[in-house]
Amino acid sequence: MNILVINCGSSSLKYQLIDSENEKVLAKGLCERIGIDASSITHQPADREKWKKEVDMQDHTAAVKLVIETLTDKEIGVIHSLGEIDAVGHRIVHGGERFASSVIVTEEVQRQVEECNDLAPLHNPANLIGIRSCKEVMPDVPMVGVFDTAFHQTMPKKAYMYGLPYEYYENYKVRRYGFHGTSHDFVSRRAAEILGKDRKDLKIIVCHLGNGASVSAVKNGQSVDTSMGLTPLEGLIMGTRSGDIDPAIITFISKKENISAEEVIDICNKKSGVLGLSDGFSSDFRDLAEAAADGNESARTALETYAYRVGKYIGAYAAAMNGVDVIAFTAGAGENNAEVRKLIGQYIGFLGTNIDEEKNKLRGKEVILSDAGARVAAMVVPTDEELAIARETVRLVKGV
């Protein structure tokens, strides 16, 4: 089966076409500035040069049509016709409490996803636009929704409840949901496979360390806690997000700066994290590591504060599971930044990780960082959320 994986943003559309038989990416690309001047498509066929062109895209339906035209183009395409796309898998950010697993997308599913819009106002409406656009262009092709929040729906109530009046949970479902679930599921499963063990027999901590970052505790194959909360703002310090802060800071800054609470939240989302800590230097961990090595004190502070927060969450989740067998690093910084992993390693050695410095220098590859005698296996496991979405799509479409 050929599975088209769609990740739709408010003005963008990422796509991959994956042959599910050999799990090979046939092509991938990105439509940018949809509905805005100078919109463009970047297309990368497997084993061929990247191709980019400015094309007017008034809306997401036009973008989907352009993706199909590009995939079937005689020169740069990888299939002959729309009929070779067997199913479409959509990333959906928030499924609330309704969706604990992936689903075939129906009209009722779309309605229920729309009811979660206030939990993810920037993402869910865009995800729905992608679904509706694909249905318009490919009405007979089955569609599957894969939720970022679904994997974490196994968390016990003690892990997802906040210390707020219970009525806010009853009335508005204010609770921890967690995100990056597709990645946490994929990486924890793959980590067990690399070790030749059953995930159900392991306690795994997954550290998804990208520009957005989260940690999860996966016990016996199920998520039992995760660092992101009602929104992706809670938890770790991230590229531009503050992570955990005293909630009273919001009103404190609001009064001091004479700005609204919404404006402070916007600062917490877009101008904080390592970008803010480095005094606006960069949100890119590669830049920060280079600058810190050259003596930039604010960059060093940003990295050390970040690593400290990750280390604390790892310790907390080892306690939550009453032990840990595996710590897996993934996503941009987790897979590629040896300095970030080294700094985090300062706080987790007591668990018995015994991380080898030479192995830690490897980038972007599956590797067991710990030596053979380690009590806890520290690993790098590259994530592949698109492949995970494709696998879920095949499972549901085939009914297996």
From TrEMBL:
<feature type="binding site">
    <location>
        <position position="14"/>
    </location>
    <ligand>
        <name>ATP</name>
    </ligand>
</feature>
<keyword id="KW-0460">Magnesium</keyword>
<dbReference type="GO" id="GO:0006085">
    <property type="term" value="P:acetyl-CoA biosynthetic process"/>
</dbReference>
<comment type="function">
    <text>Catalyzes the formation of acetyl phosphate from acetate and ATP. Can also catalyze the reverse reaction.</text>
</comment>
<dbReference type="GO" id="GO:0008776">
    <property type="term" value="F:acetate kinase activity"/>
</dbReference>
<dbReference type="InterPro" id="IPR004372">
    <property type="entry name" value="Ac/propionate_kinase"/>
</dbReference>
<dbReference type="Pfam" id="PF00871">
    <property type="entry name" value="Acetate_kinase"/>
</dbReference>
<feature type="binding site">
    <location>
        <position position="385"/>
    </location>
    <ligand>
        <name>Mg(2+)</name>
    </ligand>
</feature>
<dbReference type="InterPro" id="IPR043129">
    <property type="entry name" value="ATPase_NBD"/>
</dbReference>
<feature type="binding site">
    <location>
        <begin position="208"/>
        <end position="212"/>
    </location>
    <ligand>
        <name>ATP</name>
    </ligand>
</feature>
<feature type="active site" description="Proton donor/acceptor">
    <location>
        <position position="148"/>
    </location>
</feature>
<keyword id="KW-0547">Nucleotide-binding</keyword>
<comment type="pathway">
    <text>Metabolic intermediate biosynthesis; acetyl-CoA biosynthesis; acetyl-CoA from acetate: step 1/2.</text>
</comment>
<protein>
    <recommendedName>
        <fullName>Acetate kinase</fullName>
        <ecNumber>2.7.2.1</ecNumber>
    </recommendedName>
</protein>
<keyword id="KW-0067">ATP-binding</keyword>
<keyword id="KW-0963">Cytoplasm</keyword>
<keyword id="KW-0808">Transferase</keyword>
<dbReference type="GO" id="GO:0000287">
    <property type="term" value="F:magnesium ion binding"/>
</dbReference>
<feature type="binding site">
    <location>
        <position position="7"/>
    </location>
    <ligand>
        <name>Mg(2+)</name>
    </ligand>
</feature>
<dbReference type="InterPro" id="IPR000890">
    <property type="entry name" value="Aliphatic_acid_kin_short-chain"/>
</dbReference>
<comment type="similarity">
    <text>Belongs to the acetokinase family.</text>
</comment>
<keyword id="KW-0479">Metal-binding</keyword>
<dbReference type="GO" id="GO:0006083">
    <property type="term" value="P:acetate metabolic process"/>
</dbReference>
<feature type="site" description="Transition state stabilizer">
    <location>
        <position position="241"/>
    </location>
</feature>
<comment type="subunit">
    <text>Homodimer.</text>
</comment>
<dbReference type="InterPro" id="IPR023865">
    <property type="entry name" value="Aliphatic_acid_kinase_CS"/>
</dbReference>
<keyword id="KW-0418">Kinase</keyword>
<dbReference type="GO" id="GO:0005737">
    <property type="term" value="C:cytoplasm"/>
</dbReference>
<feature type="binding site">
    <location>
        <position position="91"/>
    </location>
    <ligand>
        <name>substrate</name>
    </ligand>
</feature>
<feature type="binding site">
    <location>
        <begin position="284"/>
        <end position="286"/>
    </location>
    <ligand>
        <name>ATP</name>
    </ligand>
</feature>
<feature type="site" description="Transition state stabilizer">
    <location>
        <position position="180"/>
    </location>
</feature>
<dbReference type="GO" id="GO:0005524">
    <property type="term" value="F:ATP binding"/>
</dbReference>
